[in-house]
Amino acid sequence: MKKYNFSEIEEKWQKKWEEAEIYRAKFRSEKKKFYVLEMFPYTSAQIHMGHVRNYTIGDVIARYKVMKGYNVLHPIGYDAFGLPAENAAIKHKVDPKEWTYNNISTIRRQLKKLGLSYCWEREVITCTPEYYRWNQFFFIEFFKRGLVYKKKSPANWCPSCQTVLANEQVVDGKCWRCGSIVEQKELSQWFIKITDYAEKLLDFSGIKNWPERVILMQKNWIGKSTGCEIVFHLVEINQPIKVFTTRADTLFGVTFLAISPYHPVVSEIIKKSPYKEEVKKFVEKVRKTSLSVEDVLKTEKEGIDTGISAINPANGEKVPVWIGNYVLMEYGTGAVMGVPAHDQRDFEFAKKYNLPVKIVIKNPEWEKIPEEIEAAYEGEGIMVNSGIFDGLESNKGKEEVCKWLERKRKGKEAVYYKLRDWCISRQRYWGTPIPVVYCEKCGIVPVKEEDLPVKLPEKIEITGKGKSPLENVEEFVKCKCPECGRDARRETDTMDTFVDSSWYFLRYASGDTENKPFDKKEVNYWMPVDQYIGGIEHAILHLLYSRFFVKALKDMGYVDFDEPFENLLCQGMVIKDGAKMSKSKGNVVDPEEMIEKYGVDTLRLFILFAAPPELDLEWSEKGIEGCWRFLNRVWNLNQKISEYKSSGNGNDKKLEILIHKTVKGVSEDIEKGFHFNTAIAKMMEFTNAITKMINEKNVSEIKLKEVWSKFIKLLYPFAPHISEELWEMAGNKNFLFFEKWPEFKEEILTEEKVTIVIQVNGKVRGKIEVPPGLKEEEVFNLILKDEKIARWIEGKEIVKKIFVPDKILNIVVK
RNA sequence: GCCGGGGUGGCGGAAUGGAAGACGCAACGGACUUAAAAUCCGUUGGGAGCUUGCUCCCGUGAGGGUUCGAGUCCCUCUCCCGGCACCA
Questions:
Q1: Domains of chain A, earliest start first
Q2: What's the complex ipTM?
């Protein structure tokens, strides 16, 4: 008997598939399409098990959908710009481009080894001028419509390296390379106005099936809150100041105002404050401290009395104005009303500085208003000490106070979002140059469309010192103003790589990309992506930015749909010994080694079988051996079947039911939630059962061969190489890829016999084999003859019987 | 703190409110072999009983509830994982 020689088989079919170009996607408007997409790999390293899992899931779906008759698009590309290339350049003196392309060729070779059904002709590499040119094009389109703008914003700055650091390069508030304390430095940076789309991004009605948690995470990230904008009056400065609150019902409990050290009015306050020096010192101190997340949390609430006072518009009361380090400038109005009795932060602040606590909402659990409280009461209640609003429910009070203020022109209803504009400036080399020119006369001028792309200069020196590597490239910086033609300077910031990944899926979906970002007609045909697959780590940024891009492009008339990804599957991590695979833990399993040892089909099968896609997958060498054994059994069974001779046909019907059951099970497992693990289990059950039947020699060879060829088709999306080989061995000349997925008939599934479970008082007391479709009475009469069951009913009063046809009979006795 | 998700054999994991533990791994027994590996055939949640292949009891984090019947639905608690977090 010939042994299962996986390496020979896999090499053979990968070559044949490539030669026949079977995966090339074609635009065919009359055919129903299916777009399967996996998040493209970052070109910083080799392929790891996480990628194998991601791409295998996509590949099964793609192959299955083709067999189901869809016109499938299944592309791949490389996320090729970004920091790692530049870091490698600094560390090992290699050219970022060379480094990136080396990695790409490794990754491409690995992907091909995995036997994935990609349309390679559509490969996208984001660091090519052919691609990033369109990043620049869209930037300018956005610019024209006021969707990009420049503003000062703090950036992480390492004073020793003299460079800007990305958030991930700041470790414990220190520079990852030299360990100096990272400072915040105000830099003028480019922003995309994603906040204009906050409301549209909160609308998920165009999405069919995303994990609930991803939608939730996006909603929280956007963070819409409806409340009231209230105008206080600053007495000594004689100007108004706005605060935002979601609890206008607590307005009468305000005992101070707290404003952010970054608030524009601070300079005015310093001028008028009786404690000028102290206030100035405090503000400077706060502004110096690092803004990293951990630090902010650790920082204790601190503030300083400015000596300035404000008038509460509700009751004309004068309250002190403080500057507080806990007031964010980036959210709301940069100033908050302090209500210690009903806000825990304000409470802590008030306790620390001995500010009064005034209760204006009565907790229903209180019998009377307490003299003192130990914590703020943030719940609902009845309004007290609130003038005309006394006795009103706080819930209603929120709106009533707001309306009342509106009539007095001292406030209005307002909506605020946590979402901030998207900073796309990177003071880095390896990215898309921002296509803008600075002219002394004309100011900020976008590069003309016909002059795109603004090419990234090659072979430049990257030291990691100084602001941006591009600033030192004279030929790049020096240019002419597109408007007036005078000497001008080029922008040296490059774009965030999230810009690249916000529309790559549109580029894939376009056959013709010669002189345009994509072909509208083709993109409208293929899009939206029917199934997107990737890691949960992109739940917010990448997915939100892509949604924004598509919505903005729709508004600009480039596309006709408004969601990029209709269905999303977030696959779990591949872990070993309970931890994510990583070099530092030394628990990495190299996919290529596994392919060498067991073959791709076995690797794919194991990775699909070991856990459902959305759960973490524990790597197990023993587990992969189990899948290896399964494929060998399939291989050996195939030989047995090809040599099988028998005239018996007693089990033909049973075999027919078995294959229909398997087809149904596998199809449904794929359809509802991609339960590949149970689909594979069903195929294993099938082979176990068919083995027995072959040994019994009671099936006809015609039936056996017919059923077996259906099974090979089921196996194909999971283990395509071996399936294709078996298919050919059976004498077929065509590729399995173009075969129709087997169908099942429900009526064949009605078996000759069903097992009815007999329960007495809900406990299983027996089971009987009967022909299907028996009535309750018939079943009951049968069990009376069955001693084992009957003795549980004997001498008891039958209260009632519950009967589920062909399934269960439960007899309730007393 | 807030918001999600989840606790099922020795392990990975199955179970439209209807036989808990499919399938795989590990383990054990047997066949083949001089022997081992590989392969094939069995057994395998825990406990008790005897006539040794059958009977009964217990069992899905803990406690309660709904139901003829709960891993599944409801309530309380507990532990684990993930996200967010001075967002006014």
A1: 6-76+94-122+501-571 (3.40.50.620), 140-193+421-497 (2.170.220), 225-416 (3.90.740.10), 621-747 (1.10.730.10), 753-813 (3.10.20.590)
A2: 0.95
